[in-house]
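hey can u check if this looks right to u? its 361 residues, i copy pasted from the old doc so theres a chance i mangled smth
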Amino acid sequence: MKKVIKLFLFIFFATVSFGADEKLINVLCYHKFKVTKIKEKDKEILDTYSIKPENFEKQMKYLKDNGYNLIGMKEFIDYMYGKGEIPEKPILITIDDGYKSIYEYAYPVLKKYKIPATIYIYQVFVNAGKNTLSFDEIKELSENGFEFGCHSNTHPVLTNKKNLTDEEYIKFLEKEIIEPKKYLEKKIGVPIETMAYPYGSYSKEVHKIVEKAGYKLAFSVVPSYNTKETHKYSLKRTMIYVSTTIDEFKKILERKQLKLKEFYPGDGDIIEDEQPVLKVKLLEDSNLNIETIKFKIDNIDLKDSIYNPETKMLLYSYKENKKKLKKGMHDIKVIAKGKDGNHYEYAWLFITGRPLKINLK
C-alpha cells in the first residue's frame, strides 16, 4: 500500500515554482525566407514554414521600434545558469533546418538591424544541395555573429519509439542527439551548446540523453514564453508561419504569465492512459475572469474544463467526456482572459505512449 501511495504522489502532480524574477522570454522560430509552394492533396499551397523576406523585415523592424531587446544565445545561457542578467522585453531569434534562404534573405536583414540569431542545423541536411547552407556560408555566418545549434542527425520525431526495443531506442537517441553534436563541432569549429528538437517533441527520457551529450539548453516548439524557472531542456519557442500577420505577431509578444502550482500530466511525462484526467492547480486567480479558465490541447479548446475557484483546481476528464488522446506528443496549455483584457497562459508538453522499462541514468 505504501508503494502505491508513493507512486501516486510521484506521478500525480508536477510542481511549478516561480521566483521573484519573472521576465518573460519569447523565443521565435523561423525556417525558410523564400515563399514556396508545395503539393497537398493534388493542389498547390503555400509552404506554411516559409515567410516573405519583406514580412520578416517588418517583424524585425517592429521589434526594434517597440523597445524589445534582441539577445544572443550565449547571453541567454548565462542568464539561465545564474551567471548574468538580461534586459527587459527579451527576444531570441532562432532559425531551424539550414536552408540557403537564411544566407540569401535573413542574413542581410539581421545584419541591417544588428540582431543576433541562432541557426539549428541537422547533420544530413548540411551542405546537401543547392537549397541548403554550405560549410563556407556557415563559416561566414559564424564569423559575423551567428550562433549554431544542433537539430539532430536526420530530423526524426525523437519520442517515436516505433517497434524498437528499449536498447534500440536508446541507441537511436544517442545517434540523433550525441553524434551530430560531435560532428558539427568538428566541421564548424565552434562549441554546439544548444539543441532544437525536430518537430519540437521531447520527453524526460530524451532529456536524459540531451544531458548526457552535454547540451546546456534545448528547445521545443511549444508555442509560449519562457521564464528563468522553465526547465533548461523544455524551453519553448513560437513558430512564425507564412500566414502570421503583424497583428498576430504582436499578440505573440503580449502573452501574460499564468501561474500554476501543480499539474498533471507533468512536463515531458510519458503516460499510457489515453483517457487521463488533466489536473492543474492555479497559484492565483484574482486577476482572471474565472469563467474563461480552461485547458487547450493540440490547439483545441477543452470547453468542458471544470474550474473550482475555492480549491483553484482545473480538471478535464477524457473518460467522462467520452474522448481519447491519440498516441504521440501533445501541446497543452491552461488559458484565461484577464480582468485587464490580456491573454494569460501556461504551456507544456507530454507524450501518450510506452515509457522505457530501462532506467536511464
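The two ends are 27 Å apart (CA to CA).
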